[in-house]
Design a protein that fits this description.
By secondary structure, the chain is of the alpha/beta class. It has nine helices and nine strands. The chain has one domain: Rossmann fold (3-Layer(aba) Sandwich). It is about 45% helix and about 15% strand. A seven-stranded parallel β-sheet has the order 3-2-1-4-7-8-9, with helices on both faces. The protein starts with 6 loop residues before the first strand and ends in a 9-residue tail after the last strand. This is SDR family oxidoreductase. One of its GO terms (molecular function) is oxidoreductase activity. InterPro entries: NAD(P)-bd_dom_sf, Sc_DH/Rdtase_CS, SDR_fam.
Amino acid sequence: MELAGLSAVVTGGASGLGEATARALAAQGVKVAIFDMNAEKGEAVAADIGGVFCNVNVTSDESVDAGFAKARAAIGQERILINCAGTGNAAKTASRSRETGEIKHFPLDAFNMIIQINLVGTFRCVAKSAAGMLTLPALADGERGAIVNTASVAAEDGQMGQAAYSASKGGVVGMTLPIARDLMSEGIRVNTILPGIFNTPLMNGAPQNVKDALAASVPFPKRLGNPSEYASLAVEMCRNSYFNGEDVRIDGAIRMAPR
């Protein structure tokens, strides 16, 4: 798919993997709308790339609908959707305090929150974007659009405390092929990226010795991933029209240990 002149929506586009992808798409001549809850950063990135910022909470139908309406009024119906909005938490399924013997379990509201943001929020944006893409005329090969979702290597080798996060990202992986099959007759492709340990704003807050240890655990290259490397893969998934129904790790060959 020729990217120049197309329109795209990037969720979580104000920082990290989403920001890198928004910038990479803009560099290819794509008009980009950024969906995010951080208005200050989102407005700044949008201004820098000549795009539009939409204050969107992916857990809300009304917020997502309003975001798509604003984006489409500004840059037209998107042919590209990149889902990078997401978050995580950590808690054991059940645990015992060594000091007091108190037994706790993973709070179900905290579990549900991660599922709602990472899994349901992703599907919400996919379904609404795909419905909009159906209104577009077909391009070469009958193509109408391309969707890229973000999972995580935790979908396949989640660590201790990652039950909710791994479940949410595993769900994103699990729905990739069925959605691609749902949309195949309409010329809309769907792929998912499973990033390893990347140097995102979340990671920037970690102590340097922690980041060094994580980098050393990567087989090769022994460093954290750069957001631009994720963005490069996301752009190629959009550009390459034979890329469809795939879940691809980008992780330096790491396989996460139990803890």
